[in-house]
Design goal:
transmembrane, three-stranded antiparallel beta sheet, DUF4383 domain-containing protein, 5 helices, mainly alpha
C-alpha cells in the first residue's frame, strides 16, 4: 500500500516526535557518559557520589556528581526506549520537560551550599535545566500526532492513495 512508506518508513509526522525523543535521549546518554570522562569533566578527582561538595564540572561549566551523571544515563536510556513509539516519545518529552522545569525550580529555591543541593546544581545547570525543560515541553506539545496531517500516512487530497478510483 502506498501509505505504508509514510508511516513505517520514518518520514511521517509521527516519526518527528519519535526522532525528537530519540535525539534528546541520545544527548542525555552522551552527557551521562561524558560526565565520567576526566578532562571533559574538569576537577574529576573532586567527583563525589552526590551533594554540593562535588567539585567536578562537565565541560568546566556544569557541576556534576556520580548521581547526576547516572540520572543523565537513565534519562538517556528512557528516551531511546520511549522514542520507539509516538506515544512513548510524547510522554518522554512532556514528562521530561516537566521534570527538568521542576529541577530548574529546585535549583532556584535551594541553598546551594546546603545538603538540600544533593543533585548538585549551579547557575549554569539552572539555565540549562530551564532550556531543556522548555524545549522538551515545546517538542512534546508542538510535534503533531501520527495521522494528524501532511505526511502522517493518512491519505492526502490530490494523491493517488486518497481513495480516488483509477
Amino acid at each position: 500500500m502506498a501509505t505504508a512508506g509514510y508511516t513505517q518508513g520514518g518520514v511521517g509526522r509521527g516519526s518527528m516526535v519519535r526522532t525528537a525523543a530519540t535525539v534528546v535521549g541520545a544527548l542525555f546518554l552522551l552527557v551521562g557518559i561524558l560526565g565520567f570522562i576526566p578532562g571533559i569533566t574538569t576537577d574529576y578527582d573532586d567527583l563525589s557520589w552526590a551533594g554540593h561538595h562535588s567539585g567536578a564540572m562537565l565541560f568546566g561549566i556544569f557541576q556534576v556528581s556520580a548521581l547526576h551523571n547516572i540520572v543523565h544515563l537513565i534519562f538517556g536510556v528512557a528516551g531511546l526506549a520511549m522514542g520507539r513509539t509516538s506515544g512513548g516519545a510524547r510522554t518522554f518529552l512532556l514528562g521530561g520537560g516537566v521534570v527538568y522545569l521542576a529541577l530548574w525550580l529546585y535549583g532556584l529555591l535551594i541553598d546551594r551550599d546546603s545538603d538540600a543541593n544533593f543533585v548538585p546544581v549551579n547557575t549554569a545547570d539552572n539555565w540549562l535545566h530551564l532550556g531543556l525543560g522548555a524545549a522538551m515541553l515545546i517538542l512534546g506539545l508542538v510535534l503533531p500526532a501520527p495521522g494528524s496531517g501532511l505526511l502522517s500516512g493518512s491519505p492526502q487530497p490530490g494523491r493517488p492513495e486518497a481513495g480516488h478510483a483509477h
